[in-house]
Amino acid sequence: MASKVELLGRGSPSPNPVERLVTGGWALATDVAGVLGFTERFESLLGRLHGSLAALGVGPASWERTSCPPVVPRAWIERARYLDSFPHLLGQVHARGAGTAWDATDTVLTPAACYSVYPRLADSVVTAPAHFDVTGYCYRHEATAEIGRLRTFRMREFVTVGEEERIAAGHEEHIDRCASLFAGLGLDVAVQRATDPFFGPTARFLNASQMEQGLKYEFMAPVGGDGAVAIASANRHKDHLTSRFGIRCPGGAAAHSACTAIGLERMALALVHAHGDDVANWPTLPDDPEKPGTA
C-alpha cells in the first residue's frame, strides 16, 4: 500500500533563509523549502540543549518525560478542534491500495507535541497538577518566507494540567525561568505578548482576547537577517483544551492547562547566530540527564 501526505492548506512555500545551518555544517538542504536534514554535529548539539532545558522542569513537581510520535490519531486532533482554528496548517495522511483512489487514514501529522497529553487525561478528574515534559517531531504547513520558519521541526514542551490558580501561577513562573535560561546562554531575548494565527470568522476576537489576557508570550531572539524569531512560547490555554477532553478538577469544574514550548531548531539557530559555529566559544551546555523520549 502506498502512502502520501495531503496538505490541507493552500499556496506555494517561499524560500526560507536558514542556509546558515547548512553552510555551517549543522544541517543538510533538501529540495523542499522549510525541510532540512541534520548532521551528527547538530544532533549532538540538540542533546546538550536538552540538558539546558531540563532546568525548566525542576522543582517540587514531578515531570513525566515522554515522546510524542510524528503522527497521531486524527481523532485526537478532531476532539481538540484544531481544525476549527488552524485548518491551513494540518497535514492529513492518505493511503491507497493498488489501482484505488487515495483515502484518508486515521492519522495526521503531529502539529504540536502537547496534543499527546490531553487524551491520556481524557474524561478524568485531576486531583493534583499533572506535569508532562514532552518532545517530538511536528509538522505545520507553514508559509516559509518568514526567517527561521520550518515546516517540520522538533519541539520540547512542558505541559501542566490542574486548577486554574495553580496553572496561572506556574505560567508566570515558566516565563521567568525561560527568560533566565536564555539569558544564561548569551541570547538577547525579548519577551513579548503574542497571539496564535487563528483562522476563520472568529479569528479577530480570539486574537484580541488572547492578547488582552496575556495568555501567550513569545521569546524573540535574533537569528540573522532582518529580524528576530520566536524560539519559544509560554501559553495559557485556560479550559480551552481540557473542556474538550473532559478533564475536570474535584468538584466538577473544568481543569486548566498551560505549556511552555521550545522550538529546538530555532533555539539552535539563535545560538549559532549569537556565538558562531565553533562551540568552543559558546557558554557551557550541560549534558542531557536522560535522552528525550526514553520515559
Describe this protein's structure:
By secondary structure, this protein is of the alpha+beta class. It has one domain (14-71, 110-281): Bira Bifunctional Protein, Domain 2 (BirA Bifunctional Protein, domain 2, 2-Layer Sandwich), CATH 3.30.930.10. It is built from eight helices and 13 strands. The protein has helices at residues 19-23, 40-53, 74-80, 82-85, 118-121, 164-184, 203-213, 264-275, and strands at residues 2-7, 27-29, 36-38, 63-68, 71-73, 91-96, 103-109, 130-139, 152-162, 190-193, 216-222, 228-238, 256-263. The longest helix is centred in the middle third of the chain and has 21 residues, at 164-184. It is globular, with a radius of gyration of 19 Å. Mean pLDDT is 86; it is low at 1-17.
Layout of strands and helices, then pairs:
Blueprint: E1 2-7, H1 19-23, E2 27-29, E3 36-38, H2 40-53, E4 63-68, E5 71-73, H3 74-80, H4 82-85, E6 91-96, E7 103-109, H5 118-121, E8 130-139, E9 152-162, H6 164-184, E10 190-193, H7 203-213, E11 216-222, E12 228-238, E13 256-263, H8 264-275
Give a short synopsis of this structure.
Helices cover 26% and strands 29% of the residues. The chain has helices at residues 19-23, 40-53, 74-80, 82-85, 118-121, 164-184, 203-213, 264-275, and strands at 2-7, 27-29, 36-38, 63-68, 71-73, 91-96, 103-109, 130-139, 152-162, 190-193, 216-222, 228-238, 256-263.
